[in-house]
Each structure stands twice: as C-alpha cells, then as structure tokens.
Amino acid sequence: MPVTVLLVDDEPLVRAGLRAVLDAQPDIEVVGEAADGASVIPLVRQLRPDVVAMDVRMPLLDGIEATRAVLRTVDFPPKILVVTTFENDEYVYQALRAGADGFLLKRARPSEIVHAVRLVAEGETLLFPAAVRALAAEYGNRRARDVLERAALTEREEAVLRLMARGLTNVEIASELIVGTETVKSHVSAILAKLGARDRTQAVITAYESGFVSPA
Fold first, then answer.
1. Residue 87's closest CA among 101, 102, 97, 99?
2. Three-state SS across 99-154?
3. Where is the signal peptide (predicted)?
4. Sheet with 28-34, edge to edge strand ranges
5. With 0-12 CB in 10 A as exposed, 13-18 as middle and 19+ as buried, what is 189?
C-alpha cells in the first residue's frame, strides 16, 4: 500500500510542487489538499492519510494549532510533517512541541522531500538542524529536567536517547552500539514510556530542554 499524504498550504504553487514530486513516486499518493489548517480535521477524518504535510504559517489556523487539534480530536492520527520556509523559525519548534513528527524546508530538493515523507511515515523522526536544536536548548526548563530525572533511564537507554537526538534511525543506532535493531526498538519503547513521550520527537525535545543533550 502506498503512503498517503494530505497537503496543507495556503500557497497553491507550493501544493502543486509537492504534489508533482510525491505523486511521481510509486509508493506515495497525494490523496487531498487544503489551503488552511481549519480544513485539516474533516479532511483527515474523511481521507485517513498516513502523513499530513502542513505549512506552519497559515492565515486562519496555523500549523501549530492545527497539529494540536488533530492530535487532540482524531483517533489514530496521521504523522504530521511541518513544512516551513526557515529552519530557525520559532513556529517550527512550537509545532514540534505541539506534537509534529518532523519538518521539511520548502526549498528542499525533490529527493529530500520524498525521503522526509517516507521517514516520517515509518515513525522515525527527521534530524533537527542546529538552529532548531539551539531553540530547544533556549527553552530549557525545570519540568523537562524533572521528567528526565524521574525517568531513571539506564546507561544504555541514555546512550540510545543521545543518538536519537542526533537524528539516527534505529538501524543506525544499532550499528553505532553494535546491537540488534530489535534491541534498539525495545530501548526506544522503554525511553518513550519512561519519559511519557508520544513519540521520538517528544523524547528528543525533552532531552534538549532538560539539558541532557547539548545543541552543540
């Protein structure tokens, strides 16, 4: 079955460009489009896409609030890929904090767009660029530090979390630690449970905000 995608952007040319790139792939299908975040929930319920590629800045309902609304009201919500013009945009970070699974720059090459959609659909988040990691560090807070302290991660789980924060996939982490992929998956599941994180993105945000991982 192909990965199904809903495109949400107030610029028709952006939607047309993304559709042309994604529909050219045999394993990806664009199933719908919307010009604003206010249309996302009914379309998600109707079309049941695997991934929503959503602009972060829109006039009626921006990508941050639309992300929150989807995750709050839709059963088995899709993965959300934030589409943005600037990688150091604070809106991007707020969208990730709200529950988005990754981000994509509008100027990305076609191969990068396809890779981003496939990666998010598989549940492995994209690498935060240095600018977004720096924003995460700026949002350091006591709550994140308390969450990490109460989690009492094992030494191996800490190592896995650091590699997750670098953007490594499960296969890459397994290679780095010289363990099996299934072992890594078990560690990731344990980390998410201990941190109370919805997904890898939320776990990595906690790692940065707590100071456990440095943006350098």
1. 102
2. CCCEEEECCCCHHHHHHHHHHHHCCCCCCCCHHHHHHHHHCCCHHHHHHHHHHCCC
3. none
4. 28-34, 3-8, 51-55, 79-84, 102-105
5. exposed
> Which neighbouring-strand residues pair with 83?
55, 104
52 touches 8 (CB < 8 A): yes
| Choice between 59 and 27, residue whose per-residue pLDDT is larger | 27
Retrieve residue 89's tokens: 């945009």
Short-list 214, 55, 20, 22, CA closest to 121? 22
- Amino acid residing at 57: R
pTM over 0.85: no
DSSP 11: -
Q: Which amino acid is at 214?
A: S
Tell me what the mean pLDDT of segment 20-24 comes to: 96
Give me the pLDDT at residue 89, please. 66
The beta-strand segments (E) located in the chain are: 3-8, 28-34, 51-55, 79-84, 102-105
Identify the pLDDT of residue 131: 63
With contact defined as beta carbons under 8 Å apart, do 3 and 51 qualify? yes
Give the Cα separation of 27 and 184 in Å (integer). 26
Over the stretch 73-90, which tens digit does the pLDDT of each residue have? 998 999 999 888 876 667
Closest CA to 17 of 63, 53, 60: 53
